[in-house]
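Q: What structure does this chain adopt?
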Amino acid sequence: TLENIVKRHPPPSIGGKRPKFFYATQVSIHPPVFIFFVNRPDSIHLSYKRYLINQFKKQFGLNLIPIKVFFRER
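A:
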């Protein structure tokens, strides 16, 4: 799912380099918390974070549930 989401709308490149997503995992259920492992977590823009949250809500039926997202370096 993460691969399809990123393929559909790749993250913007910063300084000529685009962040690469490796995988995501859910670490909590109340509230749902997802950790995304990327090569450059500091280069994820707020608007792309919102895009990922909205896509995950749509994919997993979490429309009315607030979710938290964090980015970590692999």
